[in-house]
Amino acid sequence: MANIKLTDLALRDAHQSLFATRMVTADMLPICDKLDKVGYFALEAWGGATFDTAMRFLNEDPWERLRKLKAALPNTPIMMLLRGQNLLGYRHYADDVVTKFVEAAAKNGVEIFRIFDALNDPRNFKTATEAAKKTGKHIQAAISYATTPFHTREKYVELAKEYEKIGANSLAIKDMAGLLKPYEAYELVKALKKAISIPIEIHSHSTTGMSVATLVKAAEAGAEILDTVISPLAMGTSHSPTETMVEIFKGAEYDTGLDTNLLLEIAAYFREVKKSYKKFESGFLGADTRILVSQVPGGMLSNMEGQLKEQGALNKMDDVLKEIPLVQKDFGYPSLVTPTSQIVGTQAVLNVLQGRYATLTAESKDLLAGKYGACPAPKNPDLVKKALEALKLEKEVAHRPADDIPAEYEKLEAEVKKLLATDAPSVEDVLSYAMFPKIAPDFFKKRPQGPVVFTPEPDAPASAVSSGKNEAAKYVVNVNGVNYNVVVAPAGTVITAPAGAVDAAPAAAPSGGGTVIPAPVAGTVIRYAVDEGAQVVSGETVIIIESMKMELEIKATAGGKVRFLVPTGTKVAAQQPVAEIG
């Protein structure tokens, strides 16, 4: 048995899982020299949610991050996580956009493309894999692991054979929720080694507390590569500690040969960096065995916390975790990984807040209608019927969904030319706009300001009150699932403001003579579905909002002339009036 190789996830999945993908490039670059000397198989540093978060929250250009990391890591391959035909967004893209994206990613620094599809539908690998082949880069096909009646060892072996045939250089088992048990990992890897000849990499989160044992058994069964992360960013919703795995294998036939002392220097650096992201840190820091039932991935868990806080409903987390497996079953047992994790998770949140399937997101409708590909199992027929009626389709999509998407790169390029007032926008800017057309325009405007800066936050000075010093003390107090910043002034005055609450949009006041339509949840008004003053009927869609990264329709509750109370592009709070019918 050759030495086990390790891929470290500190620069992507670890901070995505632990603190909502907020790590800025400036906190990555100073340690790259040491990371580059370790001897990793790869550093996963791009893709996943990093692209979205960089523009949405960090005011960073994700392409610039990739270029800087490539320059700082000349000896270690950069791995990216690519969602097949979804790329990095939440819908399928036309083949020409997929091809352009893969070419640009390879040109800017990606050496290993870890390609997966949430539904494990090989048809959704086709274009991305063919494009990656042409670049000459390493293709790693990933199987999204789940534990449902329709995700079996035999099915995984069948998929692995197919992925090897289409040209994968290696295979990954992507256990995004920590569901892969140690002895099942052993049997699965044994079965895969008999069926395929390419190397196998194991990716397993620590959420349920099993990952260290799972990696050990996978190595014993013949897996050549394991995903780990430097210890300050390990465990909880993240992954097994790199140093721990190095020490476990030291002196055995699986010895990684990596220098523990160098790893400890890297750990010391990230221990300090982590302090800057305390406010984003997931509350799920131990082993959460509820996930054995809900199957929620680590990154989804920390992001769901933020979503529920935004809705003022953090106290509903247990209800949402119970609802998720019910939605997953109704939707045909898709594995819970982006984008289906977000689709199923957001639908579960809406079911808890509004009643089961009172509202279907646009993405839920598309998944039910087959627009994301073939789900592993039959779906709830009543929900499929509801989705098809809303989409005005006669039957579910049975062919490769991307076959229905006409070439779109030139159209997107034309829109970016107009947006940036240039005849020659970069391919990278066009692709950024393609991924997130609602986020990119604002990012392009703010890009010259440079990335945000996070600094360590001091602990609440509890001693300031008891010591009698003339200082204000700051605390975060949770009331019914909502965090409040509380400042106790020297005179004892208490001033409160919602912590991270959604800023209400500037709004016109209802006239009082019509039917007011409130926003069902907190979100952003992205467009009007009808013109101001249009005559609408009850049940007609009047506004589209984006909430929890999904699109929701707000419908008229009465007939009459519509008057909008909030402008597009602004945030609204739950139950805030957004339109009036009169």
Walk me through this protein's architecture.
With about 575 residues, the protein is α/β, with parallel strands linked by helices. The chain contains 21 helices and 19 strands. The strands form 4 sheets. It has an 8-stranded parallel barrel with strand order 1-2-3-4-5-6-7-8, surrounded by 5 helices. The chain has a 4-stranded antiparallel β-sheet with strand order 12-19-17-14, with no helix packed on it. Helix 5 (about 95-110) packs parallel to helix 6, helix 5 packs across helix 19 and helix 16 (about 360-370) packs across helix 17 (about 380-390). Mean pLDDT is about 90; it is low at about 460-505.
Radius of gyration: 24 Å
**Gap from first CA to last CA:** 75 Å
Unreliable sequence segments:
460-505
Strand order of the largest sheet: 1-2-3-4-5-6-7-8
Describe the structure concisely for a colleague.
The chain is an alpha/beta fold and 582 residues long.
SSE topology sketch:
Elements: E1 5-8, H1 13-19, H2 32-38, E2 42-47, H3 50-56, H4 62-72, E3 78-82, H5 95-108, E4 112-116, H6 126-135, E5 138-144, H7 153-165, E6 170-175, H8 182-195, E7 200-204, H9 211-221, E8 225-228, H10 242-249, H11 260-273, H12 291-294, H13 298-310, H14 317-330, H15 340-354, H16 362-368, H17 381-391, H18 409-420, H19 427-435, H20 440-446, H21 463-466, E9 473-479, E10 482-488, E11 494-498, E12 515-518, E13 523-528, E14 535-536, E15 541-547, E16 550-555, E17 560-564, E18 571-572, E19 577-581
Parallel strand pairs: 1-2, 1-8, 2-3, 3-4, 4-5, 5-6, 6-7, 7-8
Antiparallel strand pairs: 9-10, 10-11, 12-19, 13-15, 13-18, 14-17, 15-16, 17-19
Helix pairs in contact: 1-13, 5-6, 5-19, 7-8, 8-9, 14-15, 16-17, 18-19
